[in-house]
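agent: user wants the structure for MFS transporter, CP family, cyanate transporter from Salimicrobium halophilum. delegating to structure tool.
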Amino acid sequence: MTNRKLYTTLLILGIILVSFNLRPAITSVGPVIGLVREDLNLANWSAGLLTTLPLVAFAFTSPVTPRISAKFSSERTLLAGMFFIFIGVVARLIPNTFILFAGTLLAGIGIAVCNVLLPGVVKEKFPNKVAFMTGVYVTSMGVFASVASGVSIPIASGLGWGWTNTLAIWAIPALLAMILWIYLIWKERNTAKEEEYIALEDSNVWKSPLAWKIAAFMGLQSFLFYVTVAWLPEMLHASGVTIATAGWMTSAALFIGLPASFLVPVIAEKFEDQRYVVLLLGCIALIGYSSLWIGNSLPLLILSIICIGITLSGSFALALAFLGMRTKSARQASALSGMAQAFGYALAAIGPMLIGLLFDISGSWTIPIITLLIVSLGVIGFGMEAGKNRYVEES
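agent: tool returned. relaying tokens verbatim.
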């Protein structure tokens, strides 16, 4: 194997390892949020803040990440992002409210850095395989999201590790990713030329109506995802299943969506535009949350889990694919990624806390689930616009 082929192979592995770390710091919290709430005496709205803080970090970090990577290279910036994730997750070993929230915010900053850079890196390094590589890293992301959600309760309660050790264990994949990227940085001595695409001189995406529609689509589908990760176990528990079973059902939803993570962007790229794909995913979302709302039987809850898993994974993968499919260059893909994720996650950040607050006020999950149905309609509306065959440079 030539040095270039070795570097490309390790680069693919590096992208996959980074993607492994973009969800567990968040998805591992939902199943044990009751333990955290009880141990630290948190209200529902403040417990929801544990999944909201990373989104706040996404919103503020995303716009500046491309400029930082222009100065230090995407490899070094990705390494810094992984370091933030590592430190933020390790901080959860300390059962202190302030340290828990501070570590969560730091991990969120690291995740935001990696979130923004990956679409641009894929567009630059694999220009003819954008949809395929997007599917690969989103699917990898989904694998660890599912695992983190599913094993949290068994580790915390079954093994007796408690919520602190359970949440901190996800520092291990972050450490592995850091080691590989240190090697990649050492291997690739001259990165200046390869990183020119990150130099974000073009800011016209902020003036593009299409870019804003993509950002809204990303924000609303992210709203659904992070609310579901944070509160689906509690919603299922309220429907009569045990909290351990609810954790596994949430994990199953994410696992069921894995094929959609890979197939949706690959299939969508084969169409002239992606509006029909958006409409299908939106209808599946409506079926899923409606079934959860009226889910007084196990078959309805299972239907809900299947539909929610498909739509969350598929729409997220499609949103990331849009960042490459709606731009003509890697530079514009990076610009759109920073802009769309900044606005999108700012919109999504209110989700877990808002839903927790609505539950505190109403005392049931009816109003929160109706809210999710309304948001699903918004996903369809903005997604239909984002799915049209055009480029942000032309809009």
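agent: one observation worth passing along. The chain has one domain: 3-386.
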